[in-house]
Design a protein that fits this description.
Helices cover 28% and strands 42% of the residues. The chain is of the alpha/beta class. The longest helix is centred in the first third of the chain and has 15 residues.
């Protein structure tokens, strides 16, 4: 996870740190660490894939995606919204299974509950370059 491209950041320092830590877990593909940021009833929409409802279904889907690539790194561009409803614009460096790195723009909308855990994640991305 990198912030060198960051243009705008509207969250409190605490919420921004939460977001950075969440994406450090994602980029390291650390299942247990990533789960710490999710509510039990979290709903994930990843691109045009079927909706994943609940932490177990979400983690199973993410694990399947992570297994299909050799790595990823999020480069934050803009972080907009509030501490409980935020939008992240990022450019993601994906290391494909052939070790070629491709960049893909992405926008993610995250809603956090009163405990500060993600209960809705909507990822708008085209992963075609990752698999072509």
């Amino acid at each position: 996870m990198k912030t060198h491209l960051l243009k705008s950041q509207m969250l409190s320092q605490e919420a921004f740190q939460w977001l950075q830590n969440k994406y450090l877990a994602v980029d390291s593909r650390n299942h247990q660490e990533y789960a710490k940021y999710l509510s039990d009833d979290c709903v994930l929409q990843f691109g045009n894939n079927p909706l994943a409802v609940g932490e177990d279904a979400l983690l199973q889907g993410i694990d399947g995606f992570w297994a299909s690539i050799h790595g990823l790194n999020h480069n934050f561009v803009n972080v907009l919204g509030t501490d409980h409803q935020l939008v992240l614009e990022a450019v993601i460096d994906y290391t494909r299974s052939d070790d070629k790195v491709v960049q893909t723009p992405c926008v993610t909308i995250i809603e956090r509950n009163e405990q500060g855990l993600a209960n809705s994640i909507r990822i708008f991305i085209d992963t075609t370059p990752v698999y072509s």
